[in-house]
Amino acid sequence: MSALISPALARVVRAANEVFAPPAAPDPVPVLERVFADAKVALRRGLVLMLWAFELGPLPYRFSRFSRLPLPERVAWVTRLSRSKGALAKTLYSVLKVLLQSSAYDASAAY
Amino acid sequence: MTHPQHTDASRLSADTELTAEVVVIGTGAGGAAVARELAEAGRDVLLLEEGPWVTAADYGKLGTLDATRLLYRDAGLTASRGAPPVLLPMGRAVGGTTVINLGTVLRMQPEHFARWQEAGIARLTYAELSAAYDRVEELMPSRPVADAVIGPNTRMLMDGLAKLAIPGEVLTRNAPDCRGAGRCFLGCPTDAKRGVHLDWIPRALGRGARLVTGVRAERVLVESGRAAGVEGSVLGPNETRRHRFTVRAGRVVVACGALLSPVLLHASGLGKRHPASGANLGVHPACRAIGLYDAPVRGQAGVPQAYHAPVSSPGEMYVETAFLPPALMGPALPGFGPEHQKLMQRYDHFALAGFRIIETERGSVKRAIGGMPAIDYALCARDLATVRAGLKLSARLLFETGAQRVFIPVHGLDTLESPNDISKIDDPRIEASDLELSGYHVHGTLRMGPDPRTSVVAENGAYHGVPGLYVADASLFPTSSRVNPQHTVMALATLIARGMVNERPA
Description:
The complex is a heterodimer. Chain A is mainly α. Chain A has helices at 7-20, 28-35, 41-56, 59-62, 71-83, 87-105. In chain B, a hairpin with a 5-residue loop joins strand 16 (364-367) and strand 17 (373-376).
């Protein structure tokens, strides 16, 4: 099976990781590749779709993809997601938080 | 794990067809108990399992994410649709969820069995169930958690419950030699917790049963109106079909758990036979509060779940102790960035109070595209009130024991700064969709009963209307068992298998 996270998506994951995880956290891309390496195709596709939705979410509001925003604006965007009552925003926030903070704190050196 | 009677299907190089007298689909609590009884009675049994056969040698040193990947279905991300989505983690290995549960084994109480009788159970008696519990305990020694492995998180909550005059009890677990490693749900690193992959499956194989792993059952074969076997796939990369796998058997026992058993029957064209098929889903939705203390607690030490206390008002619930490893504590705490990191640096200063409710409304499961379960579950107003009560009680317990702040998984109200904030949990603007819930006791989706119009399976486990087809897992529960379901599943499966032994072979 080919890589789950393309180079473009890897930029999204790392940009999100700078917001969600502590600075000493390991690179989450190989971690996610490993965790979802054997996952069923539907789950892998769902994850990719979710990452793209996260990346393109700011486009109508900030005229930029998430990964191209400066860090303070990324933090502001994630804060906005965390406060949203919308189902998609809540889901995106929760999934990214779980994946990236789990990946970060599975390595004890991260905190 | 290897055994002469075990075949890892990934080594098969072509489509395969086997025959057996009985094929058992699933090797969790139900499948293992059926296999043990039938094999000991000399029946020719073939067990099918989708996941691998692993032990502490394989999972004992893995981190949280790698253990989750190895032992959980879909990396532990199975969730319901509805408000709120409920996370429903399931085991996917030989031993099923007994590999990753917390090892609590409790008998259903007579007053709760009486609710089964009110729901239509007429032939099965509590005396029979008790005898079956006895039989299960012969091969699954269980005892109350030893004082030496009751950790500080549990002791703190025991103190809190005592201060609030709420009686509780130390839990009984199937881990007599537990050393309190504190990571049962990642697979016990010392195999002290006796999941059925350690004793029950080897016992069945020792009596001639066969086990094939790496196979997904996709359809129960029904010919001339009766069960004739199972068709499925040998799984290749990313759970795609590598080869076809067929078992011809006159008796088929479905024991895939309450989410997947109805999906398998739906895929077999049997879903529409009974209106109750896939309905009546209960999960015992669970929630938590995390307290932050000035002094270190070391909540991670000892048995994660060692004590519980039943509460009956405003709705039924059980307050339970539990704790999380860092990889799960991180996402459970609110926020992100430097403030979140500061919280995680105080990991030793947390205590966790959990609770699960006995829901009054039920959900459903059906087959979605790709054969995955589509789980519909929503929290009704009454159950939402019980969850609010559970959150308030958990927060009180933590403040009573000295917590400086309490974190709850409620959108818009994730931090309680003092006991005065507890009343904010009653804010009517907080809706069910604002909660984070999980469920560990999935049950009820192929409920048993005498009437095919209101149940799916008879009290002897036989599927209504298809001779030779049986169900033996928590799908059977007509109502909640209240307590953790493993022990009751194993007792029911034991009774079902004994009934099968006494029937004429197909």
